[in-house]
Task: inverse folding
C-alpha cells in the first residue's frame, strides 16, 4: 500500500475515534461549552488536514 494511502487510512481511523469520543462525552453530564469548543477546533483542524493530505498534488 502506498505511503500516502496508508496515511489517509490512518487519519480516517483517528478522526473516527475522535468524533465518536466527542459524541460519548456530549452524552455525559458536564460542561457542554468545552465540548462544543473542542468540536469546533477539531472540525477546523480536520478541514486543514484533509486539504493537506487528500487533495491531489
Result:
Amino acid at each position: 500500500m502506498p505511503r500516502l494511502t496508508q496515511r489517509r487510512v490512518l487519519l480516517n481511523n483517528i478522526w473516527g475515534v475522535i468524533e465518536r469520543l466527542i459524541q460519548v462525552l456530549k452524552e455525559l453530564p458536564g460542561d457542554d461549552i468545552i465540548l462544543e469548543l473542542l468540536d469546533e477546533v477539531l472540525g477546523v483542524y480536520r478541514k486543514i488536514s484533509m486539504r493537506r493530505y487528500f487533495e491531489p498534488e
User: Anything to note?
Assistant: The chain has one domain: 13-54. The chain has a mean pLDDT of 76.
